[in-house]
Specification:
The chain has 22 helices and 15 strands. By secondary structure, the chain is of the alpha+beta class. It folds into three domains: 23-149, Immunoglobulin-like; 171-337, 60s Ribosomal Protein L30, Chain: A (2-Layer Sandwich); 342-543, Serine Threonine Protein Phosphatase 5, Tetratricopeptide repeat (Alpha Horseshoe). The strands form two sheets. Strands 1, 2, 3, 4, 5, 6, 7, 8, 9, 10 and 11 form an eleven-stranded mixed sheet that branches. A hairpin with a 2-residue loop joins β9 and β10. α12 (387-399) packs antiparallel against α13 (403-410). It starts with 22 loop residues before the first helix and ends in an 8-residue tail after the last helix. Residues 1-19 have low confidence and may be disordered.
Length: 544
Amino acid sequence: MKNIVRILTAVVLGFAAIACSSPEKMAEMAENVIVTCEPAVLEVVGGEINATVTVTYPEDYFHPQAILEVTPVIVYEGGEAKMEPFFFQGEKVQDNYQVVPSAGSTVSKKVNFAYAPGMEKCYLELRGVVMHKDKKVDLPSKKAADGANCTALLICKKGKVDLKADNYQEIIKETAEGQILYQINSSNVRNSELKSQSIKDFQAALEEIKANERKNIVSTDVVAYASPDGKEDKNEALSQNRSKTAQKAFNKVTKNNPVEGEVNVKSIGEDWEGFQELVSASDMEDKNLIIRVLSMYSDPAVREKEIRNMSAVYTSLAKDVLPELRRARFIANVEFTNYSNDELLQMIEENIDVLDETALLRAATLVKEDNKKVSLYKKAVEKFNSANGQYNLAVTYINMDKLADAKKALENCEKDADWNNAMGVIALRENNLEEAAKFFAASGNATAKENAAVIYVLNGEYQAAAQNLAGVKSANAALVQILLGNYAPAAELTCECPYAAYVRAIAAARQGDAEGVKKNLETAKKCEQLAARAEKDIEFVQYR
């Protein structure tokens, strides 16, 4: 770190060339031994503390017949951790240890410790024992480094799970429709058509809409067609004429109940779309052949020719299908205003049984109490066999840290990308990183990718974590950039939660911004856990 003073753990008081004639003399002259460590401030990476300790023995220090046992030890609150010792020997010892000649030497050794809670406030020391014949003499301990920097362990390990969409529509679009039929090659509207069941149903629908304060007609379409038989240009003209008479007919139909909104009159011409729908819905033996013709040819004349060549089929079409396409449709475009959030909250308390599946799922997102969320999702599952409700129940259990309940709920869910991500989060919270990584990889969705970044950080793979978090603006993403020496993303965090503030404080500390450290720690310390961490965190050692 740029602004943390490197700590050298041994002070050279002199390089006096004093011959050591005994282990006792080696102990007395131990102050002449130089010990350094890289890094000078220890760091936890991938759950481990790794460093290189370098020891310089001056001339005439090391007894030629002595063996030196050096044990690296991390001393921390709550205990200490020891490595297996290193051994060195004088140049006249007949053994297999590294030789340190009387002329002096510099030796380097790698040290490795598994991180244990409490090591955020610790130091590394070397403990030596000189052995010569039957004598053993303890050397003064040599402090090698302070630490350890545990910033990587700050990564939030809870993981993210997303709810399935509730598909609740605040505005539901509906239509009310009626139609009149024309005789072949005619645009005259018969009185009988104005009294048909289709028109009666249309008028009744308009009455119901008018009586429902939640429904509103925003526009109406009057659409005229011609059946796709005969010459195309004549059918176009016929459709145009029918649109004019259809508008007059619509005015008569709605005379006693005028519709609101704009009335759009349209002429479509030959109704090939309606033709295909009717044929598909029929029980004609050769309907698939007819539909294939429609797909093969776009030219209306060619279509009609090919269909007419199927003489038996065409007779059936002329009788049962074509007359239904000589028509005009009255289509009222309706908007239904669904329950508001406040209404939904009221309904779940007073009249929950009237709510459909999507309304229950939306209501569950509005309530604050987790147990109430569970109740609503269970009701959606029981009443509507809601797949989204079942999955969201599992998500709620995860957020409540009821992992066993979450697993049970997930047993009845589709094993899709969301399912794999949820299982990964459960494994992550259970500290089963290997299993979590497999689930996140199987999911592959954006949230799982973000969750997998946590595992990369815990494994010390900061670049891989950064790649997974590209484009993500979160405290975790900012923390990863800090670990890579990029402090700008931390400044961009707008969240005022204690965790985000702590991340900003670290970035400020590394940039020498004392005011930024103070300001952000004030917010961070609202969380007792972060307040306790800050008191020991080596990131802030020069600001205490």
